[in-house]
Amino acid sequence: MVFPWRTQDPFLFCAHHRDLYPKGNEQFGPATSLSGRNMGSDFTIKDGFRMYHGMTVPGFPSHPHRGFETVTIAKEGMVDHSDSLGAAGRFGEGDVQWMTAGKGVQHSEMFPLLNQDKENTLEIFQIWLNLPAKSKMVEPYFSMLWHEKIPVVEQSTDGAKSKVSVIAGAFGEQQALRPAPDSWAADDAHEVAIWTIKLEPGAKVSIPAAKSTEANRTLYFYQGTGLKVEGQEISDYHLMDVDSTAELSLVGGGTDCYVLVLQGKPLNEPVVQHGPFVMNTHEQIHQTMQEYGRTQFGGWPWPKSEQVHDPKRGRFALHADGREESPS
């Protein structure tokens, strides 16, 4: 399986980042030498981690988006968000950020290495979900799905436990928190689902069939050994496009197995992508590039492109309207 992972409509992109960062330094970067790296575009794992586009702090300094949504699942470690609307946040340890880029926003996603006395493991998924033509120019928006509030379905098979985190959609009777209001996922008829699944050895999960015959469904087996799907053993770091109209049986193998599921009815609209911009026509992409050149989608109100927040701050979200929230 290549990086990034292939996705099906209505999804555009899925990247899985797992980095075993060392102890942090006073600048929240790695307390080790960065020599030998292609700094500014470091996507090759060296000594267990990558710097991505970060020069001091790993991550993705300020960059623009238009025409789609990002769903960022932070399984381990912390992510510091800042954007051109003046919004900011810190999330991690299972939290999810759902951001509608809409008509245009700049943001940064940095991975501050807050622990100076121990290693800083980071694991995140970033999923790009397309917006329909009617919603591509909506106002930018982001919401936080704190992990304490994300619904979880737990089951046990002869003492072996499984856990399904319902980030979007419904799993059986368990309904996810509401997504961003202009999202394709906001209409339940579109059957958009994002689930992460953990199976202990021998644990079983039965994925229910979708109601629609149109929904696409993809499974990403990203960690573990011996996972069986409908009785067939699957190698790790493998993706599977499966029939969403049939119930699907998963059985954990020799170690804990971890799976990401993406599902949804397709938009069936033209997709024209140029880097961080996703529209329906080449003319719209040209207009987007011209507008970004003029306006920078509001500019960058933060002192650094690699903006990170006070190390003493816990998880929080500061919205563009000044509203602030935290998990508590």
Automatic annotation (TrEMBL):
Keyword Metal-binding: yes
SUPFAM superfamilies attached to this UniProt entry: RmlC-like cupins
Co-factor binding comment: Binds 1 Fe cation per subunit.
Gene3D superfamilies associated with the record: Jelly Rolls (2.60.120.10)
Domain Pirin C-terminal: 195-298
Alphabetic keyword roster: Iron, Metal-binding
PANTHER family, per the entry: PIRIN (PTHR13903:SF8), PIRIN-RELATED (PTHR13903)
Annotated protein name in UniProt: Pirin
Provenance organism: Reichenbachiella agariperforans
